[in-house]
Specification:
Structural class: alpha+beta
Strand order of the largest sheet: 1-2-3-4
Number of domains: 1
Largest sheet: 4 strands, antiparallel
Radius of gyration: 19 Å
Shape: globular
């Protein structure tokens, strides 16, 4: 993990194409190390969630290159390594286990639906929460969940039309996405038992994921035009 953190720290300080190209070999070394961590996590998480075991780590990572077309920040690279481990790879649905590595204590383990652009997915989850409110409440108030996570999401000001404003879970019906993050300090990343500890945190996400994925059973990713 030292190799990964060192490379990303250097990239943050030298966020330009010239430096990136000159240090391509260092990137390859860091990226190879990241893939090894992903593989180790797949095997460890797979002990309780076998649906993710078929994944190839190379198919689960995201590019460093940023889309700067609509951003005031024109730096070309994201100085972080990211991966999403789920039954269908790195697609946002089904939801899975998100690994985000960024130096200076900005890393985290994540889960849930991060995207808020899929209106069908949002409606499916709202409907499922509305119909299974007691189960939802039990999951997000369980000791294992509360020990590790605080539920986050982009929310509307009011309960959307078609849903009961007096519903016991009305606050969560306002959400457009539902996700959780577990912060990781650099010192934790460099510990020898990081993979085992991360897998334990990811394991605590499984009831939350099972609920969301049940809600999203019939969801289909929009086809590109």
């Amino acid at each position: 993990m030292y190799t990964i953190l060192h490379y990303l720290s250097e990239l943050k300080e030298n966020n330009n194409r010239e430096w990136y190209r000159a240090n391509k070999a260092t990137y390859q070394e860091a990226h190879t190390a990241f893939l090894a961590y992903i593989q180790a996590l797949i095997l460890e998480i797979g002990k309780t969630d076998t649906a993710i075991l078929h994944n190839n780590p190379k198919d689960l990572t995201f590019k460093l290159v940023r889309d700067t077309r609509f951003s005031a920040d024109k730096s070309p690279y994201n100085p972080c390594f990211r991966a999403h481990i789920a039954s269908k790879g790195k697609l946002p649905v089904p939801v899975g286990y998100f690994l985000f590595i960024k130096p200076n204590d900005e890393s985290f383990l994540g889960g849930g639906l991060f995207a808020d652009i899929f209106k069908d997915a949002t409606k499916m989850i709202r409907d499922y929460i509305s119909e299974n409110g007691t189960q939802w409440e039990q999951i997000i108030t369980s000791p294992a969940f509360k020990k590790h996570f605080t539920l986050k999401g982009t929310a509307l000001k009011h309960v959307p039309k078609g849903y009961d404003p007096a519903h016991p879970q009305a606050e969560y019906l306002k959400y457009k996405n539902w996700f959780i993050e577990y912060p990781i300090h650099d010192s934790q990343l460099t510990q020898t038992d990081f993979v085992q500890n991360a897998a334990e945190v990811f394991s605590a996400m499984q009831p939350f994921h099972d609920f969301l994925n049940q809600a999203l059973t019939n969801f289909e990713m929009p086809k590109r035009p």
